[in-house]
């Protein structure tokens, strides 16, 4: 299913990131790891009344530092207008209406996207009901009083948000088709890589058109396997439009990641992984997508016997949470190793959908427990793992049935995850471990 995107906009300090965390945080995440990537997240998976959506805090989208606040806000509003289905416009009832709010409103009014006005910080504030009328001036209809910090009325707000969602749209591809998205900063060579893959004579690009999505996706066949590169047009389109547009691709990338099975994270060999890369890759990781790190422009690198190893070490250091992702070195200019990327995609997609036999799985966990005892609490009560199952694939999900879930530590979970990987691989695929009390 294709998830709508909801973008939070507003001037600094109105409570955008608090609202983001409130909405995304209330969803029980089954990936409880990697604090480093969750700290300053700006993209998250959310759900309200059974409707999943992607929430974006545009306030956290990186912009050139030389931009003024006004330019930044304009930019963030533009991104929201271009890419989101619904815009959540946040203002602060305690400060009251400011000129900056009016500026944001002016940008937003230029679009015909639905805008929901959230008047934040309304808890314990007597004049809130009165003051909210000031915000009618912005022209977005009923202002909703909320408290992002305390979670008050955010449910009513979300009722409004999902009311504006488009009808559910199913992705048109069958289970046998591997959906690939290509992410990475501008100019790392995404379009070149895609063009090189599709231009290979052993790759047969199909031109069936059907649903609206086909217009931007490119289905193709290679060695009897079916693939589709998601949102290829989005990549090819750029270039003409110039500055600014590159930022837009961030949200578009999210949607592409969301719809894909395997994500190719392309980085420029001379730049390495950037924070922006980590944020999008973090989203892919949390969404449980297969991930391959593609180091492009390898032709430009001066090499010796150890260059690749050093490179891999550096990537592992920069983005430890992707330690399961294969790294490959290509040149989209010369074509070096470009077709091999598809072999890695096949491999990762196989790992991603791999199901391990229950008895094997349990013996691996038993061995792991025998080798290194589970933690105990200060009363000496020790975690007991009764048995393990793998109810899901894509990504693999493991459920540990235990005596007391509170006794499970992050570090022990990671240890078990490593043991599972050691035994079964799952290269390129995030895996999820959850505990259930029996
Ligand atoms: P952003 O810059 O728009 O992302 O704003 P933040 O989410 O960082 O919030 C700015 C400040 O407002 C922080 O000190 C928050 O703790 C505070 N804040 C956010 N939401 C609320 C709220 O509902 N009530 C109150 N009283 N303060 C809030
Ligand atoms: P995108 O913005 O990520 O889609 O990047 P493009 O595919 O448009 O490539 C940006 C620039 O890098 C173009 O000038 C390409 O010709 C160049 N480029 C792409 N891949 C390679 C490569 O492997 N080696 C070299 N030397 N240049 C490349």
TrEMBL record:
Pfam families: KH_dom-like, MMR_HSR1. The keyword Amino-acid biosynthesis does not apply. InterPro entries: G_ENGA, GTP-bd, GTPase_Der, KH_dom-like, KH_dom-like_a/b, P-loop_NTPase, Small_GTP-bd. GO terms for molecular function: GTP binding; ribosome binding. GTP 2 binds at residues 184-191, 231-235, 296-299. GTP 1 binds at residues 10-17, 57-61, 120-123. Residues 4-169, 178-353 form the EngA-type G domain. GO terms for biological process: ribosome biogenesis. Keywords: GTP-binding, Nucleotide-binding, Repeat, Ribosome biogenesis. It comes from the Bacteria. GTPase that plays an essential role in the late steps of ribosome biogenesis. Belongs to the TRAFAC class TrmE-Era-EngA-EngB-Septin-like GTPase superfamily. EngA (Der) GTPase family. Associates with the 50S ribosomal subunit. This is GTPase Der.
């Amino acid at each position: 299913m294709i998830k709508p995107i909801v973008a939070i906009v507003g001037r600094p300090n109105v409570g955008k990131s608090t609202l983001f965390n409130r909405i995304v945080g209330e969803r029980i995440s089954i990936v409880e790891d990697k604090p480093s990537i969750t700290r300053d997240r700006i993209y998250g998976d959310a759900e309200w009344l059974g409707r999943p959506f992607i929430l974006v805090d545009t306030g956290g989208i990186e912009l050139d530092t030389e931009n003024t606040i006004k330019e930044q806000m304009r930019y963030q509003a533009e991104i929201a207008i271009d890419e989101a289905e619904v815009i959540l416009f946040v203002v602060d009832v305690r400060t009251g209406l400011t000129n900056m709010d009016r500026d944001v409103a002016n940008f937003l009014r230029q679009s015909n996207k639905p805008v929901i006005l959230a008047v934040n910080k309304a808890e314990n504030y007597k004049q809130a009901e009165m003051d909210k009328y000031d915000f009618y001036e912005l022209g977005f209809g009923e202002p909703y009083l909320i408290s992002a910090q305390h979670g008050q009325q955010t449910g009513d707000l979300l009722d409004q948000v999902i009311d504006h969602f488009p009808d559910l749209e199913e992705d048109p591809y069958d289970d046998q088709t591997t959906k690939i998205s290509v992410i990475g900063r501008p100019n790392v060579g995404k379009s070149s890589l895609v063009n090189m893959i599709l231009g290979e004579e052993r790759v047969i690009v199909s031109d069936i058109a059907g649903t609206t999505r086909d217009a931007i996706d490119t289905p193709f066949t290679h060695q009897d396997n079916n693939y589709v590169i998601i949102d290829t047009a989005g990549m090819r389109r750029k270039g003409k439009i110039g500055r600014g547009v590159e930022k837009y691709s961030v949200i578009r990338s999210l949607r592409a990641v969301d719809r894909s099975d395997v994500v190719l994270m392309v980085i420029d060999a001379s730049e390495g992984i950037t924070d922006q890369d980590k944020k999008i890759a973090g989203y892919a990781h949390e969404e449980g997508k297969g991930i391959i790190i593609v180091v492009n422009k390898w032709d430009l690198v001066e090499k010796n016997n150890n260059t690749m190893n050093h490179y891999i070490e550096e990537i592992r250091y920069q983005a430890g949470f992707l330690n399961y992702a294969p790294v490959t070195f290509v040149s989209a200019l010369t074509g070096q190793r470009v077709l091999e990327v598809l072999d890695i995609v096949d491999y990762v997609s196989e790992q991603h959908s791999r199901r391990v036999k229950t008895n094997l799985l349990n013996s691996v966990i038993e061995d792991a427990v025998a080798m290194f005892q589970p933690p105990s609490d200060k009363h000496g009560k020790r975690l007991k793992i009764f048995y393990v199952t793998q109810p899901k694939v894509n990504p693999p999900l493991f459920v540990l049935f235990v005596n007391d879930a509170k006794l499970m530590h992050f570090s022990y979970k990671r240890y078990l995850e490593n043991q599972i990987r050691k035994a079964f691989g799952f290269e390129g695929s995030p895996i999820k471990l959850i505990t259930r009390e029996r």
